[in-house]
Amino acid sequence: MNYLVLGSAGQIGLALCHYLRKQGHEVSTFDIADDPAQDLRIASEKFKSAVEACDFVFFLAWDVGGSTYLAKYQDTFDFVQNNLKIIVNTFENLKDSKKPFIFASSQMANMSYSSYGLTKSLGEKVSSILNGITVKFWNVYGIEHDPEKTHVVTDFINKARDTGIIDMRTDGTEQRQMLHADDCSECLYILSQKYNELPRDKEYHISNFEWNTMLDVAEIIASHYPGTVINPGTAKDTIQKDKRNEPDPWILNYWQPKIGLGAGIASLIDQTGQ
Question: 244-247, long-range: CB within 8 Å, 24+ apart, which pairs?
Fold first, then answer.
C-alpha cells in the first residue's frame, strides 16, 4: 500500500513514516518543513498529484506546537487563518479524490476557549461529513526538529541536558496523558488497516490512559541527568485551563498502548543522543 503522510516532518509524522516503512509499505511524504512547495495552505497541482497517486492519506499537518508556541500564537489571526486554509485545501482534495483518510484531531477539540481546539473541532466536522476516521491525540511525544514548536518532554530534556535546570512554565500540577510516538504510529497503522470495518459513530482516542503531572515528567527526565534542578513556576495551566477530559476507551478494542512514560522518555533520550 502507498501511504501519503501529510505533516511527515512533525514528531508524529516522522515516527509514523518510519513505522509504515518497517511494515513494508511505500510512504510518500508531504511537509512544508521539507519543501516550501508542499504548503497545504495553498492549492497546488503538486498536492493534488500526491493524493491521486496514493492509496491512503494520514492528515497530520497543522500549524501547532507545544504549550509555549500555543500561548504565543494560537490567538493570532495568522494561526487561525493558517489552519483554516489547511482545512479547506486538504479536505477539498480528499473530497474530490475519494481517498480513504484518517484526520488527526486532539483531545482539546471540545475546549472552545482554545483557538487550536476550535480549529480541530471544525476539522472533525468536515472529516465526519466526508466519512473519514477522526482520531484524537493525547499529548504525543517523540523526536522533534523545530525548536520553536517543541512540546514538554523535548523541552524538559533540552533544559536538563543543556543547563542542568528545568524551569517550568507552570507549577507542574496539571495532569496529562502522555503517549509515545511509536505507540501512536502503531495505532494509526492498525486503524488504517481496519478502515472499512471501523464504526463511524465511535470516538478514537489515542492515549496511554494514564495520568501524570508535569512535575512527574520533569522528575523522570531529571533522573537521567544527575544534579538537575527542577524549578516549578507559579502559574496555573493557561492552555487547557485545568480541564481534564477522560478518553473514550473504545479504541482498546483494536489496540493497546505498550510503552510506559518512564521507558518512553528513556528511549527518546537514547534515540536523540541526549
Answer: 244/175, 245/107, 245/110, 247/107, 247/136, 247/138, 247/177, 247/205, 247/207, 247/209
Q: What is the pTM of this model?
A: 0.95
- Cell numbers describing residue 261: 512514560
Here the cell at position 101 is 483518510
Phi, psi of 192 (to 5 degrees): -65, -35
Containing domain of residue 17, as a range? Answer: 2-272
pLDDT tens for 103-157 read 999 999 999 999 999 999 999 999 999 999 999 999 999 999 888 999 999 999 9
| 209 phi-psi bin (left φ>0, alpha ψ -120 to 50, beta other) | left
Q: Which secondary-structure segment (H or E) carries 115?
A: helix 115-129
Q: What is the DSSP letter of 234?
A: S
Rounded to an integer, what distance in angstroms lies between the CA atom of residue 172 and that of residue 156? 12
- Going from the C-alpha of 204 to that of each of 145, 180, 254, the distances in angstroms are 27, 17, 10
> Cα separation of 247 and 224, whole Å?
30
The CATH number given to whatever domain includes residue 97 is 3.40.50.720
**Longest CA–CA separation in the chain, Å:** 57
Q: What's the rounded Cα separation, in Å, for the pair 235 and 165?
A: 18
φ, ψ of residue 6 in degrees (nearest 5): -90, 125
Using H for helix, E for strand and C for coil, what is the string for 53-93? HCCEEEECCCCCCCHHHHHHHCCCHHHHHHHHHHHHHHHHH
Query: How many domains does the structure of the chain reveal?
Result: 1
What length does the chain have? 274
